[in-house]
Write a structure and sequence with these properties.
Blueprint (H helix, E strand, L loop, with lengths): L6 H11 L22 E2 L2 E2 L23 E12 L2 H9 L7 H14 L1 H4 L8 E11 L4 E12 L4 H19 L7 E11 L6 E2 L2
Helix pairs in contact: 3-5
């Protein structure tokens, strides 16, 4: 005698197979012909996402065979604000104190803690983190540029970018009581050197 179907068990099977995924999200395709193993993509041959293995699973890239070389990365961004807010920052009279001094420390700290924030980034021994700010009257805005250096087997692009983001977020936090309409803009890698990929400089 046929066993009656159990709609609930089918539902449980569907739910268990999707455990740990965002509802409605597409799962990575298998390596054969999948986007994560695709060796030819727009922009050149041989390009691929190195943080995915042959099965399309996330992993930390093995850099053990790479040479230890000097690595440098420079990143930048800006936070647009009202003219009055920029004047407060320049005068050092913002309610929470020295805005750019605190933002500089936040950027340096973020560079050192990047591997705690970006899941697949390698912990690196940084040899230098330099943070520069500029007041931009046309905008108006505050611009930030961070340079990070190390002697290691992998680059410091993520450290520079993370530092920029943290520095700009700190400026927002320090000044939000006066200007909640501030906008963080244009965070990007400006230049990197060292490693197999060589030198890169943004246009």
């Amino acid at each position: 005698m046929p066993r009656p179907s159990n709609p609930g068990s089918a539902s449980r099977r569907r739910n268990s197979s999707a455990a740990g995924t965002v509802p409605g999200a597409r799962l990575p395709r298998a390596a054969s012909g999948g986007e994560f193993s695709q060796r030819r993509q727009k922009g050149g041959a041989g390009l691929h996402f190195t943080h995915f293995d042959s099965a399309g699973q996330a992993h930390m890239v093995d850099v053990g065979a790479k040479d230890v070389t000097q690595r440098v990365a420079r990143a930048g961004g800006r936070i647009a604000m009202s003219a009055n807010t920029l004047a407060l920052i320049r005068a050092g009279t913002a309610k929470k104190g020295d805005v750019l001094g605190i933002a500089r420390i936040a950027a340096i700290q973020a560079a050192k803690r990047t591997s705690d924030l970006i899941p697949l980034a390698h912990p690196l021994m940084l040899t230098r983190v330099a943070v520069d700010f500029a007041h931009v009257d046309e905008g108006p805005a505050v611009a930030i540029e961070v340079t990070v250096e190390t002697r290691d087997r992998t680059g410091v692009e993520m450290e520079a970018l993370t530092a920029v983001a943290a520095g700009l977020l700190t400026i927002y936090d320090m000044c939000k009581a006066a200007d909640r309409g501030m906008r963080i803009e244009g965070i990007r890698l400006l230049e990197k050197s060292g490693g197999r990929s060589g030198h890169y400089k943004a246009d």
